[in-house]
Each structure stands twice: as C-alpha cells, then as structure tokens.
Automatic annotation (TrEMBL):
Protein's name in the database: Putative amidase expression-regulating protein
GO MF annotation list: amide binding
Gene3D superfamilies cross-referenced by the UniProt entry: 3.40.50.2300
PANTHER family: ALIPHATIC AMIDASE EXPRESSION-REGULATING PROTEIN, PTHR47628
Organism for this UniProt entry: Paraburkholderia phytofirmans (strain DSM 17436 / LMG 22146 / PsJN)
Amino acid sequence: MKDEWRIGILFSRSGVAEETESEYFRGTVLAIEEINAAGGVLGRPIVPVCYDPRSDSAEYRRYADKLLVDDGVSVIFGCLLSASRKAILGSLERRNGLLWYPANYEGFEYSPNVIYTGAAPNQSTMQLAGYIISHVGKDITLVGSDYVFPRETNRLLRCLIESAGGRIVDETYVPIVPDEIVLRRVVDGIKRDRPAAVVSTIIGCGTRPFYRFYRDAGLDPRELPVGSLSLAENQVSKIGPEYCSGHITSATYFASVDTSSSRRFQEGFARRFGRDSMPSYNSESAYNQIYLFSAALERAGVDDPQKLAAAAAGVEFDAPQGRVIVDADNNHTWLNSRIGILNDRGQFDLVWEALHPVKPDPYLISHSFDYGAQHARMPD
C-alpha cells in the first residue's frame, strides 16, 4: 500500500495569469498543510508535485503529460484560463487523469475527467447582469481581454441584457497583454459614450492600468461603476483602493463574509502567508476543492480517477463562503452567489447574496433572469 497521496499542482506563478493563479496556489497549499497536520486522508499525507506552466498553454499540456506519465500522478489541481484547461483535456481523457478546476468560467462544458469547483454562468454572470440592470441602469458597455472567457461571457451578457430591455452601448476587446495606448483608448470611448455601467472581463496585467486610467479620466464609480467577475481584494490592494472604491464584483466569497469558517480561513491564511496577505474568492475556491477532494478520497479509498470522480458526487464542505456541494449531475459545484461593492478601505460591502447555495447550471437549461432574488435577501 502506498504511504502517501501524490497530486499534481499546475498553477502559474509567472506570466499573465501570475496574480490569480498564485492565489490559487496559496489556497491549495494552505488546505494541504491543514489536512496533513490533522493526520492526512485515511492516515496518509497529501504530497503535491508542483510545476509552474508560466501562463503558457503548451506548457500546461507538457506538464500535464509529465505528471500523468513520468510522475505517476493521476489527479491534478490547476488552470485559470479556459485555453489552458482545454489544452490539457485531451491528455486527461487519453491518460485517465482527473482535473480539479477552481476558476469561474464561461460554462457550456462537461468532461467526466474534470470537477468544476468555480462559478458557472448562472452562479456569477447572471447575478452581475441582474444587479446592474436593477440597481444601476440598462445602457452597458462591455470590455474584455481577447480570449474565450470574455467573448463567451459577453455573448451571454448581451443576450441577458437585451432580453431585459437593456442596450449594449459598445463591445470591445484588448490583447491579454495590452499596452497603455489601447487601454486609454477604451477608457476614452467609455467617457465619450457615458453608459450607465461597464462590465469588464479584462484580466491579468491589464487590470491595474485599466482601473487607474478609468479614475484618472474623471469617471466616478458612484455614477458610472465597472462590474467585474474577477476583481478581488488582493488586486485592489495593488491597484489602490482609491481607484476602485464604488466598483462592483460578483463572486462567491469576499473577505468581508463574517462566518466562523471564514474567520478560520482568514486567520490560517494570515499565519501562513503574512498578516499583509489578503485572501480572495480565488484562494478560497482553491482551498475548498482540496477539502472536497479529501472528502471524496476518504469515501473512495483509492485515487483512481474514475472511482474518485464517482465518489465526489454529493460530497460537501463547510467552506468559508458557506456550504459547497459537488453536483452529481454535472461535476460542477453548488456555490454561494454574492454581489459586493468596494469601499474606501479596499473591502467589499455585501449588497446582495443568495439565501442558499445555487445549483450549477453550466448549460443554462433552466435559468431565469431573476438573478436569484426569489432565493435571496438584501443585507441590511
């Protein structure tokens, strides 16, 4: 019998995805260390084999093959960009591997070789669109990085917004590594058009200059906010809270969520990574999936991917965001949808949350554009 559980970790700590995937890495490390300190799983420690794919899809594919073939690993935790996830799907399916994927994404995908623990469109995108239309206005500009997630998300947003009587004022894309001229041109267009709100799916190194240029151009978030599916506390601290106050994010977790599980998570995060380190929904999502994996592993008793995926159906965890559950129908996860508005301290004030975990509907088979209000409350 093996005396350890070996798993692969493929999160970039360099390149365009460095900021977010480093958060995934930290959340993963924290959960592994906590579980091992408590005795591991079935008395055996989790031992990670880690590589840095440097935000390069070809490197994800190469390292996935290395893990599955050379390192004898069958379970991988990794990826942010859809391009990197899709780059390793063939290897996973060909070599019988299992990926745990923590990112919110564009949906419309299912693989028996993937457990999706980030938000599907009906758990984040729809809530953001619904909140903006209900509380900000119906004339909306869409801006994003030029890759799969922003384009597919904006396709859905256009459908949702127009079906609710709204109008897409403009839809524009920038390179994943945009230069200053391109970003200033986007901001100038927003200033010229004066929509009610902007939805930004700009990611990575373009995020910081975009928000700074936005405020420097005299655009006041209290009058013309940017809604995001990715802007998190750690990014805000680097951009500067003074540039971000008033902007909106749809996410499953904010550090301002005040539960015993959230407090324990934040205390553990600070002890491990320093008091100046701020957890986000990214680190929380990666943290959760390690605990879900350990519950499935304890149930299965083996790390065979097919048996582990079957055992994962229905496993749950009292996560910092609230209870999360792997859905037996589609390998996605029931999550807790929320809307937050940034304050002057760089924290999110919670303005809307679902009363219960939201069942994942990655293909939007049974969605309603009522962004969960029938199952939610507006906090005082």
